Amino acid sequence: MLTNQKKILIVEDDLISAEYLKELLISEGYNVAEVVDTGQAAIKLAKTLKPDLILIDIMLRDSMSGAEAAVQIHQNNPKIKTIFLTAYSENEMIDFAIDAEATAYLLKPYRNNEILATIKLLFAHSQEPKAKNLENVILKDGYRFNLKLHRLFKEDKEIFLTKKTLKLIEILVKNKNVSVSNEQICTYIWGEQKNGKTLRSLIHRIRSTINSDFIQNINGLGYKIA
Q1: Contact 144, 153 (CB under 8 A)
Q2: Which whole number is the average pLDDT over 70-98?
Q3: Region 131-225: CATH code
């Protein structure tokens, strides 16, 4: 397998979990630069290593939490992407993620598909051309999404949708051909997690309105637009 040039720093206080993540990422060709278990070490290495992504646990071995470390890392270098690792999904965790401008958070126990899909999504999104070059994204059945206007069109006719349905299409369009997890979609639309029924209802309303299947359900991973 070819080595992925993206550099990842793992910040995890549980040795078994850290090794699990490291081996999983290495098996997929990612470059795991270092594994540490304290917030202070994470801040220091973020400055010297300049990783592309940091996977950081909320609870660490020193007095500084992963959330506090992530906020400081982001202040020092906003280009470094962050994914929180946590066993908790309360609103407080979402607030921490927002403060640190984290891309996502992964719940323990880890699921391989979710970890890899989340990281793939993050890197695919960061590498995409600027929005001005993707102002109109062509979809199936004559549809196109205008990223500048945040509107859906069929040929030259606008399809009127609610703000939430437009946001759902928008996040999928921005990550075209990459599956987006239910958790990431819900955080993007509502700012918090929703049960599966709420998201499925929103997807159903879109499909019934546009009469097209350009939104695909990827079992165990989420949704994508191909």
Answers
A1: yes
A2: 76
A3: 1.10.10.10
